[in-house]
């Protein structure tokens, strides 16, 4: 199968390495900048985002989007969620006329600011002729690039039979891919967990201990399901890879940018100062703003999201946010 991966950050590079490793596929990695592409070709390594891991000889690197899309059957977009619309515009301009439209899969994990649209909604709006989907789950880029075992969820509105062929092409001995028809739930879980990872980081920054972290993750899952179902998702999706699985990995992983960011905020740093001049994206920051607005508009009860938003955008001290959560009206667990 012919794959094109647009975006050569850590995750885009890692997934391109995974696809190229088998030698069974044609894989092109498309960085945004020509100088980055030149550096990847020269070093055969992504020294900026994934140092120490060699690019397979079979992995092509180019900034020529037209040629990279010419034979692409599956296009994976590995850009930050806030850059997705612009990236789709570049793809639309480069797609060959009268060619078969590729399946476009999002690797992004965030809602678009202000519109509150999920990645697949943005893609479908910009590329209406393409089938869309999302590939998500608990995956650390470096581990995937090194070939360590992992599992992911492929969610799409594509028909069952074509989806199976893509599932088989994406899977390997090191990466097991499951499928789902709940695209809404798969994407919402992937987006929400970043906000909760910031909250988990705040717990660590405040040195609250294991009990507090366990309580937070349990209530975060309950809130994730409540928000997701209100927005049209299936509840069972959040017990799977894109919900519970991604939540656990991102809230516990030392590599998690969102958790690290939350830890620094919990220890007293200001969010805006931490973000200034930062190269890597903290998806949970703007996604928290988007979900807070969306929940307020639709009357969805989401106290953890509300308090994370207050910490990040209203400079509420994390200790005060914790007190607000702990002193809410008492209730039964499953109500």
From TrEMBL:
Record-stated family: Belongs to the NAD-dependent glycerol-3-phosphate dehydrogenase family.
Identification of the protein by name: Glycerol-3-phosphate dehydrogenase [NAD(P)+]
Pathway named in the protein's UniProt entry: Membrane lipid metabolism; glycerophospholipid metabolism
InterPro entries the record matches: 6-PGluconate_DH-like_C_sf (IPR008927), 6PGD_dom2 (IPR013328), G3P_DH_NAD-dep (IPR006168), G3P_DH_NAD-dep_C (IPR006109), G3P_DH_NAD-dep_N (IPR011128), NAD(P)-bd_dom_sf (IPR036291)
EC number: 1.1.1.94
GO MF annotations, alphabetized: glycerol-3-phosphate dehydrogenase (NAD+) activity; glycerol-3-phosphate dehydrogenase (NADP+) activity; NAD binding
Residues where NADPH binds: 11, 32-33, 49, 109, 141, 257, 281, 283
Binding residues for sn-glycerol 3-phosphate: 109, 137, 139, 193, 246, 256-258
Catalytic activities: sn-glycerol 3-phosphate + NADP(+) = dihydroxyacetone phosphate + NADPH + H(+); sn-glycerol 3-phosphate + NAD(+) = dihydroxyacetone phosphate + NADH + H(+)
Keyword terms: Cytoplasm, Lipid biosynthesis, Lipid metabolism, NAD, NADP, Nucleotide-binding, Oxidoreductase, Phospholipid biosynthesis, Phospholipid metabolism
Binding site for NAD(+): 7-12, 141, 257
Species assigned in the record: Cephaloticoccus capnophilus
Entry-linked Gene3D superfamilies: N-(1-d-carboxylethyl)-l-norvaline Dehydrogenase, domain 2, NAD(P)-binding Rossmann-like Domain
Enzyme class, first EC level, given as a word: oxidoreductase
Residue intervals of the Glycerol-3-phosphate dehydrogenase NAD-dependent C-terminal domain: 182-322
Domain Glycerol-3-phosphate dehydrogenase NAD-dependent N-terminal span(s) in chain numbering: 4-157
Lineage: Bacteria, Pseudomonadati, Verrucomicrobiota, Opitutia, Opitutales
UniProt: substrate binding residues: 109, 257-258
Residues annotated as catalytic: 193 (proton acceptor)
Gene name linked to the record: gpsA
Main localization of the protein described in the UniProt heading: cytoplasm
Keyword match NAD: yes
